[in-house]
Amino acid sequence: MAHIIVKDSHSLTKTAKSIFLDLAEVAIKDRGLFSVALAGGSTPEPLYLALGDDQERVGWQKIHLFWGDERNVPADHPESNFRMVNEALVKKIAIPAENVHRVPAEKSVDEAAATYEEELKEFFRSDWPRFDLVLLGMGADGHTASLFPHSAGIVDENRWFIANFAPSREVWRLTLTKNAINAARNILILVKGVQKAPMVADVLTGEFKPTEKPIQLIKPIAGQLTWLLDREAASMLPPELLR
């Protein structure tokens, strides 16, 4: 596990973009394509905007975009993770339509999850999805993707993509499972803001209580886990983790 601490949100976006581009370059060179599961929320949106503005380094023809989680809403809904990424990135780049793998979230949650899981299995054709990169965020409650505290989905051991009910929010979400995420070659967790600082410190230095802090379940089997934090989010970490 690596921790990268940067001074502010702008630096976080710049560093995340550099990591994304470097990993894409290596994956395309070594395997001919780059597969990435994208995160929703406000933290990664500046990254997508920055990537959309850089057409030279990115071989979008060989990049496949997936979604790590989604809300159970149509593609044009204000809360849709796809809509956010589509507006910030997809509309700006020369990426083949078949390389954009949207969750069919307008369906019932069970049907949407099953359909997307089949698409993932068809694409990867392996025991688990071996994403080149999974982008994640972290909520102030310790959730990541749509794996929420005390939700049934955090204990799933067999599925790749599920419908998961979030008890604290009383909503259904669609999400990769912990095992699907942990099969990735690289996992990058982006966290910014002082409001996340207590949970960052609790997750990284406190007791292992994944039922309450599901992000503690993110431990890649044979990959690299990197926490990318701005100074505010890292402000309650002990000095030894800031070196």
Brief write-up:
With 243 residues, this protein is of the alpha/beta class. The protein is 28% helix and 19% strand. The protein has helices at 9-31, 45-52, 81-88, 109-124, 178-182, 197-205; strands spanning 2-6, 34-38, 63-67, 69-71, 133-136, 161-166, 171-176, 186-191, 224-230.
Describe how the helices and strands are arranged.
Layout: E1 2-6, H1 9-31, E2 34-38, H2 45-52, E3 63-67, E4 69-71, H3 81-88, H4 109-124, E5 133-136, E6 161-166, E7 171-176, H5 178-182, E8 186-191, H6 197-205, E9 224-230
Parallel strand pairs: 1-9, 2-3, 2-5, 5-8, 8-9
Antiparallel strand pairs: 4-7, 6-7
Helix pairs in contact: 1-2
Pick out the low-confidence regions. Answer: none
What is the overall silhouette?
A: globular
Strands in their spatial order, largest beta sheet: 1-9-8-5-2-3
Number of strands: 9
Share in helix: 25-40%
Main sheet record: 6 strands, parallel
SSE string, helix = H, strand = E?
A: EHEHEEHHEEEHEHE
Estimate what percentage of residues fall within beta strands.
Answer: 15-25%
Mean of all residue-level pLDDT scores: 96
- Structural category: alpha/beta
Radius of gyration: 17 Å
**Spatial separation of the terminal alpha carbons:** 13 Å
Q: How many helices does DSSP assign? A: 6
